[in-house]
Specification:
mainly beta; 4-stranded antiparallel β-sheet
Length: 114
């Protein structure tokens, strides 16, 4: 059974940082691409960052230069380092593993507010 468990969300002031983690089990992690999506209230889910199996990384324009996606295949974990956070980054953040499969985590809330 495949499980993706996100952690690291919380409340942070504007300009602050958070590091999200997504730990996977039940799959051979290195075979697949990984991504982070987010969904703000009343909005559609959007791609934040993705790293392909071949290590090609892409970012949404809104987070480029502030967020960094990374992975540790030995730990079956993908990370999202978020710096210089803004109120508009407030959302539920979801981990996604993709390839010939498509799995989602349960989401972790990130709130940026003073």
């Amino acid at each position: 059974q495949v499980q993706l468990v996100e952690s690291g969300g919380g409340l942070v002031q504007p300009g602050g940082s958070l590091r999200l983690s997504c730990a996977a089990s039940g799959i051979i992690f290195s075979l697949y691409g990984k991504a982070w999506y987010r969904q703000a209230p009343g909005k559609e889910r959007e791609l934040v960052a993705r790293i392909s199996r071949g290590s090609i990384i892409t970012y949404a324009d809104s987070v480029r230069g502030r967020f960094t996606i990374s992975r540790d295949n030995a730990k079956n974990t993908v990370y999202l380092q978020m710096n210089s956070l803004k109120p508009e980054d407030t959302a539920v953040y979801y981990c996604n593993v993709f390839g010939d499969i498509n799995y989602w985590g349960q989401g972790t809330q990130v709130t940026v507010s003073s």
